[in-house]
Amino acid sequence: MQEYLIRSIRGDDNVVVAKIIREVLTEMEVPKVASAFEDASLDAMFEYYQANRSGYYVLELAGKIVAAGGFAPLAGAVESICELQKVYFRPEVRGLGLGEKMVRHCLQAAQQQGYLECYLETMPNMIAAQALYQKLGFKSIDKSMGCTGHTSCSVRMLLRFSEREISEI
Q1: 165, pLDDT greater than 70
Q2: pLDDT digits (tens, 9 = 90+) for 35-47
Q3: C-alpha span between 158 and 119 (Å, rounded)
Q4: How far apart are CA 36 and CA 78, in angstroms?
Q5: Which residues, at least 6 apart from 158, have a Cβ–Cβ distance to it below 8 Å?
């Protein structure tokens, strides 16, 4: 596998990241309403993730951004819970183990920010993503948490950092 680099998002990454997210959402037939498609932050990811206790990263392969993902406080929840947000990969790099590296990076950064739990929402047809999250210790939960506005995302998962050592994540 080629060398990869995970780094914090920069302002000049916004256009590429928004394009990747929209392409994957379209590919996965995610509804444009009540999903990440209508998030105001989509075209200004760098600016959005400058908030305290947030992080957003891009993954470069051969100098090209091929994936992105991050975390932020879970809106409407206690401050000890973050949300894994907008983790998307171009089709040509899926299955290479890079998703696990990106999610581990996000989880470790979130834990270093003092979060005790990480919540996520995804779509039922995103089977590979769900398998990865389960491998990393996420458990399915019945009810949504916080106020994400993503009511079309019916798969909800939670990871309690106390159940995993940071090195295991």
Answers
A1: no
A2: 677 778 899 999 9
A3: 4
A4: 22
A5: 117, 118, 119, 120, 138, 139, 141, 145
Enumerate domains of the chain plus CATH numbers. Answer: 4-163 (3.40.630.30)
DSSP 69: E
Q: Is the pLDDT of residue 34 over 70?
A: no
Q: What would the two tokens of residue 68 be?
A: 């992105």
3-state secondary structure of 124: coil
Mean pLDDT confidence for 49-67: 96
Neighbour-count burial for 77-95, b at 16+ CB within 10 Å, e otherwise: beeebbbbbbbbbbeebee
Backbone angles phi, psi at 151, to 5 degrees: -70, -15
